[in-house]
Please model this.
Amino acid sequence: KMSVYFVMMHADTRGAAETCLLAQPALLLEAPVVILDCDLYVYSSTLNRVLRSMALKGKASSEKEALGQEAKGSSRLSSSHSISSDLVEGLRGALVFFNSRAPRYSYAVVEPIEGLDLSDPTGKITAGGRVTKTAEKVPISNCSLIGAYTFATAGWFVAAAKALIEQPLNPTSGLKEYYISLLYNFLLDPAFKPEGFESLTTTSESTTAATYVLAVPKEQYSTFGTPDELKSYEEGKESYALE
Model:
């Protein structure tokens, strides 16, 4: 069975991060969380395996051992049901992207991870890897983020969101509203020690593991947030902008 918990908004917020924080009472801080935009469809088998590994992390040691054995011997994430337990250590989040330079989207700078194949099965999209920076409405790379934001634990999301909204909005500096994509810049900082969430660095990740955020290429993606996008989708065309 699946339980659905509705959180009602009683006033406008200053951005998606603040909106999603309204759900904090319904979140399990040690469990993974995915924030998905309501106007898109996305599929990535690699992201599915990352999510499964995040969900398994923290369970009984026997389950952890089984997870490690399952992925052993393969450097390609999409060839197993989950990813190596060693790779999960230090993983604070995951993103999925397509190639574009349109200024309407959020972006990530992505670097390859040595020994790990995160290439697009179709060969049409830039290979995935480790995120070094994210930005909103600024094409800092050709890796445009799809609105499917994954956090290794809800606690990391809450901590980063609270840190972001402590910063005053400043349109001249680029902070026009509190975007979800900007939360990952906090997670990328190994020194980020969120007040009140100290357990995140002791029970949710190894104290010796490098902290990182993973970015993987999409396999299927459609967006229908505007009438033109919906029309393109219904006609079987690409409904997202490339530039």
